[in-house]
Amino acid sequence: MSAGLEVADVFRRHGxxxxxxxxxxxxxxxxxxxxxxxxxxxxxxxxxxxxCADCGLVRCAYNSCRNRHCPKCQGQAxxxxxxxxxxxxxxxxxxxxxxxxxxxxxxxxxxxxxTVYAILFRTAAETLRTIAADPKHLGAETGLVAVLHTxxxxxHHHPHVHCVVxxxxxxxxxxxxxxxRPGFFLPVRVLSRLFRRLFLDxxxxxxxxxxxxxxxxxxxxxxxxxxxxxxxxxxxxxxxxYAKPPFGGPQQVLAYxxxxxxxxxxxxxxxxxxxxxxxxxxxxxxxxxxKAKVMTLDADEFIRRFLMxxxxxxxxxxxxxxxxxxxxxxxxxxxxxQLLDLxxxxxxxxxxxxxxxxxxxxxxxxxxxxxxxxxxxxRPAPSRPPFWDNxx
Length: 392
Hints:
single chain; alpha+beta; Replication Protein E1, Chain: A; 2 domains; 5-stranded antiparallel sheet; 3-stranded antiparallel sheet; 13 strands; about 20% strand
């Protein structure tokens, strides 16, 4: 096993060959992601020198790329996001519900990421809110945090949203708190049927508006008759909605969110080895009860699968709905706390120390002493052709 192997190492070793081979097919976002990961925490991004006040160690600390697809740049962003979420947790059961797109829809989503992923978010949230509001089920307003993942353990395209939902909410008249039954939130079969209907209705609408593109093997779906037949087929199959058992409490919710919200397609810790031609990584085969296995891919295929999961510029992969929606969160949470007879929060709570280890880049890796900044390392000036070569 190669200790310390990173996705950045794969890109640095095989990225140029991949760019040459796929030059006409790489998007601007994919090129930028590759470049950011390759340069992350290197001299190319600048940084500073620092020394330990105790043992005298001197080192260079280079800047991070802060790209949301970079496996090394999510820790601090995750800690800050979780700190903001602590005050929003209520002392009630929380449930984890997953909405997954079937493979024939995932194919369409791959070529229409912004449009179809947005539909996935909206219809998953609308499904939960509609069924929760139904007096036959809960009869309450609900709220949720939804997180988009587009990958499976083998890095294939597998779009789905993870929803973390409180097990209850204000009654529809806002006068009392309605709690779900212990250990049970909403029936997944009912959720699945409504999710399928809402999603396909929206998909038909964007198709009619000319907002979908079809390429390669899917080019035939551009014809209205073929697309209508595809929708008819999709209405006949079961769509997977999975509800996991409730969390043990708000602390477990935070721990879970810390693992899921800022995850990328593959963590550096899963990489096993790299050669001149291949990359090996660990994965869990859920078709065989989550058995741990090692998969070896050609380096070109590994990079292709990783880049499948880049998101369009400006696309938000963490979203809030219902009484947790951004525009009404503070007022709605105050109502929830009032209905639950809880004290109002005047100040944010102390950070939860056992959820994530404290981020302490200022400590010496040898003795734990304080690191003192010595000097700023500027980014190298970008190379430019001489003015007489500039023909633009």
